[in-house]
């Protein structure tokens, strides 16, 4: 593989940033008495080109987050062309319109931002059709997104609706309930927000023992999220730079 100087520089920058993120996660895990291996890293690649995703797969990453259906679909296809042998799991992490469900199930492995019964039903129907059409084999993994402050504009289900939503996902033939996801809202201390999320994650897990994922923590607050039991940090800026 011959590489342009720009590409070489980008590869080195991404390698440095990735090492720094791994170190932050490991330090936070140790400070919390946890095993760093319990905490996965989802690289949020929204707005960044597929060439960056390709470099991240070279560096050993395999889980990528996108917040727009069309951008994600295009990038997944580009990555498949750039790195036909790479393993990549694509997560949708942003607000999703129900009419995007049918195209999403063709390329996404997981939706981390499910926040309404109608979206659950749309994804179940779409995933079922995709299976029938031979477009996918595995169930779609779903995380229920928690809105800690209940602000409907920022995505996520209000805290008191989360258990029922998790039950609904668990009852779907073509969806697999992975757990919960949250973004710490502005105006609430992250520790307080993540404590609420942790409690809710325990409730969901008590009802659904395989729903072990707690996706919490981004570039700015991953240490706090790891202290409160995060099993997956979603990192964009600290890896790829400012959008
Ligand atoms: C963009 C985004 C991230 C990554 O945020 P950074 O601050 O860039 O690390 C994580 N989660 C969600 C839901 C996002 O939309």
Automatic annotation (TrEMBL):
Q: What does this protein do?
A: Pyridoxal 5'-phosphate (PLP)-binding protein, which is involved in PLP homeostasis.
| Name of the protein in question | Pyridoxal phosphate homeostasis protein
Domain of life the protein comes from: Bacteria
N6-(pyridoxal phosphate)lysine occurs at 46
Origin organism is: Actinomycetospora rhizophila
Which portions of this protein are annotated as coiled-coil regions? none
Family to which this protein belongs: Belongs to the pyridoxal phosphate-binding protein YggS/PROSC family.
Alphabetically sorted, this entry's keywords are: Pyridoxal phosphate
- PANTHER family under this entry? PROLINE SYNTHETASE CO-TRANSCRIBED BACTERIAL HOMOLOG PROTEIN, PYRIDOXAL PHOSPHATE HOMEOSTASIS PROTEIN
Q: Which Pfam families match?
A: Ala_racemase_N (PF01168)
Positions of the Alanine racemase N-terminal domain: 41-241
């Amino acid at each position: 593989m011959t590489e342009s100087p720009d590409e070489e520089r980008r590869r080195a920058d991404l390698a440095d940033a990735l090492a720094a993120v791994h170190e932050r996660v490991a330090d936070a895990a140790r400070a919390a008495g946890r095993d760093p291996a319990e905490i996965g890293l989802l690289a949020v690649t929204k707005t960044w080109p597929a060439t960056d995703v390709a470099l991240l797969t070279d560096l050993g990453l395999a889980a990528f987050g996108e917040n727009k259906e069309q951008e994600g679909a295009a990038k997944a296809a580009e990555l498949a062309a750039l790195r036909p042998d790479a393993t990549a799991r694509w997560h949708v992490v942003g607000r999703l319109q129900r009419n995007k469900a049918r195209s999403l199930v063709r390329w996404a492995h997981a939706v981390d931002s499910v926040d309404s019964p109608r979206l659950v039903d749309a994804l179940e129907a779409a995933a079922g059709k995709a299976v029938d059409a031979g477009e996918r084999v595995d169930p779609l993994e779903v995380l229920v997104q928690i809105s800690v402050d209940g602000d409907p504009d920022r995505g996520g289900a209000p805290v008191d609706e989360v258990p029922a939503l998790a039950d609904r996902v668990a009852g779907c033939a073509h969806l697999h309930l992975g757990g919960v996801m949250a973004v710490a809202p502005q105006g609430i201390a992250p520790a307080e927000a993540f404590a609420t999320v942790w409690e809710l994650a325990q409730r969901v897990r008590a009802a659904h023992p395989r729903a072990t994922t707690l996706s919490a923590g981004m570039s700015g607050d991953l240490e706090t999220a790891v202290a409160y039991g995060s099993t997956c940090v979603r990192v964009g800026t600290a890896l790829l730079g400012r959008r």
